[in-house]
Write a structure and sequence with these properties.
The chain is of the alpha/beta class. It has nine helices and six strands; from the N terminus they run αβαβαβαβααβαααβ.
């Protein structure tokens, strides 16, 4: 919604679609933005290719990508985390980001006939904190996202594409409930130097700025939005 209000046409993907996507569409329409919802799984190459194709057909060439699919799925020591969960978390947080960034590069690169653009990866403060006894598998995946951000920024710097990341801390989103601990933001807020958990609306301005023209000389950066963590 922040991007829609800033004048961007917006496409979102989700594995299930449904009422949440419909609600976002209604809000985007009210903001005067064109909107498209696509049911796709970002861990599947064919789905990612179809996602970008549908966006191109209905909204025009892609100019920006926000990689914000993420999940922890389990809280506890790595030794107690099922391997199936580890694989799924690595796939969603890292492989999905790689596949979407790869497809964006293929479409936006000026050396491939594109007009350039920007990629913003949603990483996590966990990438440097490690998240011991909670989800080191997720932290490892997000550390990979940080490495991808730096490397791809250098790879695409001469091709008209900027690549940056935002690293939120403890933010009130559904990711905690999905891992079985909906009260986690309040439970661990005492760790945060700012003294509280963050809100989604405190992260979105950073993403919008990195996508926009004011950040034209910013690439390869990981911007921490974590209340001091």
């Amino acid at each position: 919604m922040r991007l829609a209000r800033a004048g961007h046409d917006v496409a979102i993907s989700s594995r299930t679609g449904g009422t949440e996507a419909q609600r976002v569409g209604e809000l985007a329409d009210a903001a005067g933005a064109r909107f498209l919802a696509v049911t796709a799984d970002v861990t599947q190459e064919a789905d990612v290719e179809r996602l970008f194709a549908e966006v191109g057909e209905q909204l025009g060439p892609v100019t920006g990508l926000v990689n914000n699919a993420g999940a922890t799925l389990h809280i506890g020591d790595l030794a107690d985390t099922p391997v199936a969960i580890v694989r799924q978390v690595l796939d969603v947080n890292l492989l999905g980001t790689v596949l979407c960034a790869r497809q964006a590069a293929r479409q936006m690169s000026t050396s491939r006939g594109g007009a350039g653009g920007a990629i913003v990866n949603v990483s996590s403060a966990a990438a440097t904190l490690g998240s011991a006894h909670e989800y080191v598998h997720y932290a490892a995946a997000k550390a990979g996202v940080d490495a991808l951000t730096v490397g791809l920024a250098r790879e695409l710097g001469g091709q008209g594409i900027r690549v940056n990341a935002v690293a939120p801390g403890i933010i009130r989103t559904g990711i905690h409930a999905d891992a079985g601990d909906p009260g986690r933001p309040d439970r661990v807020a005492g760790r945060v130097p700012a003294g509280r958990a963050g809100e989604v609306d405190e992260v979105t301005p950073a993403i919008a700025w990195l996508l926009g023209p004011e950040a034209a000389y910013v690439t390869g950066a990981v911007l921490r939005v974590s209340g001091g963590l």
